[in-house]
Amino acid sequence: MTDIWEAGLATHPRPASPPAPEPLAPDLFAPDPLAPDPVAAESGTGVPRWLDLLDRTTRTCVALDRPDLARWLRHRRARLLDPQLRVLVVGGAKQGKSQLVNALLNATVCPAGDRAGRRVATVVQHGAAPSAHLVRRRPARPHDDEPAEDRLPLPVERLADLDAGDDREPHRGLLYAEVGLPRSLLAGGLALIEAPAVDWSDPVPEVTGIAAVTRADTVLFVTEATRELSRGELALLAHLGRSYPGMVVALTKTDLAPDWRRVLRRNRQRLAEAGVPVRLLALSATLRLHAARTGDQALNTESGFPHLVTHLRQTVAGKSELLAPAAVGLATRTVLEDLAAALREELSVQRKGGTSDAMSRLHEAQRGLEELRRRATRWQYALADEVSDLVSDIEYDLRERTRAVLRRADERLDEADPARTWQSFAEWLDGSLRDAAEANFGWLAERIDAMAARVAREFPPGTADRLPQWTPALLRDAPDRVDPLDRPTVDRLSLSQKVFTGLRGSYGGVLMFGLATGLAGMPLINPISLGAGALFAGKSIRDESLSTRKRRQATAKAAVQRHVDDVFARLNKDAKDVIRQAQRVLRGHFTELTEELRQAVVESARTAKQAVDDDAAVRDHRARRIQRELVGLAGLYKQATALGAGRAVLVPAQRRPPA
Predict the structure, then answer these.
(1) How far is CA 329 from CA 29, 333, 634, in A?
(2) Chain centroid to CA 9
(3) E strands present in 154-295
(4) What are the φ and ψ backbone dihedral angles of 149, each rounded to 5 degrees?
(5) Which of 1-10, 108-117, 412-421, 610-619 has the lowest mean pLDDT?
(6) Alpha carbon distance 20, 350 (integer Å)
(7) Would you say residue 465 has pLDDT above 70?
(8) Beta-carbon count within 10 A of 286 CB
(9) Helix (H) or strand (E) segment spanning residue 126
(10) Helix (H/G/I), strand (E/B), else coil: 320
């Protein structure tokens, strides 16, 4: 009897399993994802429609400036045109993944049990003789479009010791291990890729990255039949289902799970609720290996592996007609959704107008114009308030200074006779008034500068220093505006007035003392009466001199008072004239400055408005173009959906004969 089993790494290619059983009846309510689709037929040019759709989607990615998506689609195209089917075997630690690969090939290719834990993928494909190689990434070169790979030979017996975590040469930069094995199942174009155990502590398992590196076409997910699928496994299957059609979930270790049928039903229900398109198969690697050793075909059938072998062979045979359209449907839908999302977001921005630079400048110009109006009102009020305060302060200061001079003048006139000291007094008064005028007008000049600076603060910082260089002539000539004091006409006691005053005073003395001495028998005029007359005459002259001096002082004070009042009135008018001139100059300067700023802001607003109008026209043109591009993407998406992407058959549990 011919041996129908394959054993050992060096065995020549023979059938990988007993003759395949009849395919299991599919669920009547689930469509077959690998059934021929009229959309997948050849186009009028002889090119399969899935390939034509893939090429058009690639060109669309290039046209929409997404070279990354175009590069990814080109890689998918190359893989789908390759007749080899690369199946990625994925699962958690100690779920029977390595044992499944070994049982399927009847060869110890992947370490299982306590020796498991390899952190590098292993690609098992057909080879004339057992062989192994390490594939590592070659250092990139400046003009390399894709990273090159180096293949290093490796003894087959060292496969079990392979560890990607080793940084020593030649393991540095290791991508995966490649094993060649003489098996008829592999000779048909099948390649199995055992991925490292999924690390469920990682929120984003690296299964997709491993599939991309090893260029996998579909996925065989391995989990124990002793429990239901976890949330993490369901999430990973849903993620893989968006990129890889024809996935299979293998429930292993059914020989250790008495209620594996219930687990199979529950997993089928949960996958259907999650919308994950997969096939479900219940397998036992232990029964498969035991059947291989004993040649028990019934036990091999009970292991479930013939169904897996049948499915793999059918998938290899129908890769171009069945798997490729489904894979293109998934890939193009994913790419088109990405492109459409970006276009819709851009279209929303275009329709809303966004906050373009032109619109920002227009808003800024409008705010600047409104702020300029407020500034114009503020600086006018500020200038009026400053002028009012300045007039009051300057007048009060000038009044105080002239009053101080007047008080000092009264004190000096009380101490001296104006008739004798008038010249020196007039010089002093003239100098004091000039000093007062110079001090008052000097402070006025400082106050005008301060007033201009305070009003200028109402303008933008860049224009605050642009103050007029202007000095009124009255400020420079203020001391010259003080006229000298005219000498007043004062009374003087002349010699004749003194004689007359003396005679008038002596008459009373002579008469009064002459009468008194006449009682004593003396004549009216006698030495005593003459002496008394002389005394009275001297006193009258002195009293008249004092009275005349006081009248001169009073006249001088009145004259000084009138002179100081005149000087104050003149200087006060000059100060007010200076303030009014300063007000006019500043008002003209700030009005001109406001007009310059207004013209600048208006010009800026006009330019910004023109830019906004141009930008709106560009946005409208771009929005119409995006809408046309979205219509084109919708057409491609409809064709991708028609390829049958995402459909699956949920295979019912196998019915085994009683053990």
Answers:
(1) 22, 6, 13
(2) 61
(3) 174-181, 190-194, 218-224, 247-252, 278-282
(4) -125, 145
(5) 1-10
(6) 60
(7) no
(8) 17
(9) strand 121-126
(10) helix
The pair of three-digit structure tokens given for residue 423, joined into one six-digit string:
């010249």
Cα 277–Cα 281–Cα 287 angle in degrees, nearest 5: 160
Distance CA 181, CA 8 (A): 10
pLDDT beyond 70 at 61: yes
Q: φ and ψ at 218, to 5 degrees?
A: -150, 180
**pLDDT tens-digit series, residues 170-216:** 455 678 888 998 988 899 899 999 888 887 776 656 777 777 777 88
What is the mean predicted confidence (pLDDT) over 309-332? 87
32 HSE (CA, 13 A, CB side): 14
pTM of the model: 0.58
Q: How large is the C-alpha radius of gyration of the chain?
A: 59
One DSSP character per residue, 396-408 reads HHHHHHHHHHHHH
* Token pair of 415 as six digits: 């101490």
3-class secondary-structure state, position 226? coil
Q: What is the distance between the alpha carbons of residues 220 and 181, in angstroms, rounded to a whole number?
A: 20
Query: How many of the other CB atoms lie within 10 Å of CB of 522?
Result: 15
Nearest residue to 53 via CA among 36, 86, 31, 76: 76
Pairing mode, strands 85-91 and 218-224: parallel
φ/ψ bin of 632: left (φ > 0), alpha (ψ from -120 to 50), beta (otherwise): alpha
Strands 247-252 and 218-224: parallel
